[in-house]
Amino acid sequence: MSVVSSEPEFEQARKELVSTLENSSLFEKNPEFKKALEVASIPERIIQFRVMWENDKGECQVNKGYRVQFNSALGPYKGGLRFHPTVNLSILKFLGFEQMFKNALTGLNMGGGKGGADFDPKGKTDNEIRKFCVAFMRELSKHIGADTDVPAGDIGVSGREIGWLFGTYRAERNRWEGVLTGKGASWGGSLIRPEATGYGLVYYVDLMIQYASGGKESFKDKRVSISGSGNVAQYAALKVIELGGTVISLSDSKGALIATDKGFTPEDIEKIAALKVARKALTALEAHSFKYVEGARPWKEVEKVDIALPCATQNEVSGDEAQALIDCGAKFIAEGSNMGCTQEAIDCFEADRKAKKAEAIWYAPGKAANAGGVAVSGLEMAQNSQRLKWTSEEVDAKLKGIMKACFENCLETAKEYVTPAEGEFPSLVAGANIAGFSKVAAAMKDQGDWW
Questions:
Q1: How confident is the model at residue 83 (pLDDT cuts 50, 70, 90)?
Q2: 78 a known binding residue?
């Protein structure tokens, strides 16, 4: 199957999956799955529309809106909405493609999709952002529903925007239903949802640490480098600190903030959250205990690190940065962002895993490690369907259980289809790709999507 060359992000995501499947025994044991791959690589539906809205000067503005409904074999399309000037079909197809397999790994009944617009919230007033949300949902509402497609937030779409989008959907369709996740806690949202991606990432890595150390180690006293400073990075940092680790970096689009003393505190994270709400740069936090490195990502700026958690955006760890992390002593890296590592970086980590065995760095892909966010979105859908609200403790316990099952699934699948050498950690990227793809492919076959 040919992939459009003008879709580099999607092509990268698909090639990464295909290379893993082809280098395993999956197609040898299940040759018919090759046809499933061809079918699953094409979205079921792509919706593209114009969004016309009025700025505060009364001027007509227009943006491109999208929804890529990739696969619904396992349940309603599920995936976030991204408002960012870089949004295009390639990025949304890559995100929807990854989302399909990520959702499969949660064990919940959710298909895969992604959407958004090339709208830039930065520099816009609250009123302008609200007007855009209303205009965007007026069109999107024709194509979604609680049993059809359930979007969530993503970059540029926080709980505030979800509120405006939900209110517009309710008015347009005259129905209150669980059509969006990430809603306010008093009107259908789930507790732990804002924290879920960051918390789930840390829970997954904790399981990696326990497995690698035979249960002798944890996050306690580990130096952890995190990129990003949004929702995922903030809650990952807070959970790392809670578990006894030291967070030594965060970052934003303009540079990296490196701790030069004892690491970030919960109070520092609270200040960063306030800066993000105010759309201010991390330079405002630069003080005697922090160093801001303009134009840099954290990976080459930290002198010693045990764990790396990229939590910003796609392709934020390059091949040479991967080697720098290995040289700094990193033993674990897991993606809080989607496709956070380039293929060169993944190849570097996997080569190290094979060469150094138990002394190597161990890599976990985003489709497994950051599945906690969509997992709790699935739990929010379940609560909405039952008109129930679970406690924070209940949701957190379910999240931990889902991440544990996901890790064990990736681990056992890797052992089955890519047998590790003596003393070698199983390939979690192979395990995640094969387990997620196999579940989607089997469901599609049962439903007659391929034969």
A1: very high
A2: yes
Q: Is position 99 annotated in a ligand binding site?
A: yes
Determine whether the annotation assigns residue 153 to a binding site. yes
Q: Which amino acid is at 254?
A: K
- Evaluate whether 43-176 and 196-366 have a shared fold: yes
> For 326-359, what is each residue's pLDDT tens digit?
999 999 999 999 999 999 999 999 999 999 999 9
Residue from 200, 195, 139, 196 nearest 169 by CA: 139
User: 313: annotated binding-site residue?
Assistant: no
Specify whether domain 196-366 bears CATH 3.40.50.300: no
CA dist., res. 312 & res. 249, Å (int): 12
Residue 231 marked as a ligand binder:
yes
404 is catalytic: no
Q: Hey, what are 250's tokens?
A: 């965060």
3-class SS of residue 121:
coil
Question: pTM for the full model?
Answer: 0.94
Helix (H) or strand (E) holding 22: helix 8-22
CA 96, CA 99: separation in Å to the nearest integer?
5
Domain positions in the chain are 43-176, 196-366
Class of 43-176 per CATH?
alpha beta
Query: Which among 93, 114, 331, 439 is annotated as catalytic?
Result: 114
Residues, the chain = 451
For residue 10, what are its two tokens?
């999607």
What is d(CA 320, CA 120) in angstroms, rounded to the nearest whole number? Answer: 31
User: Residue 280: its pLDDT value, please?
Assistant: 85
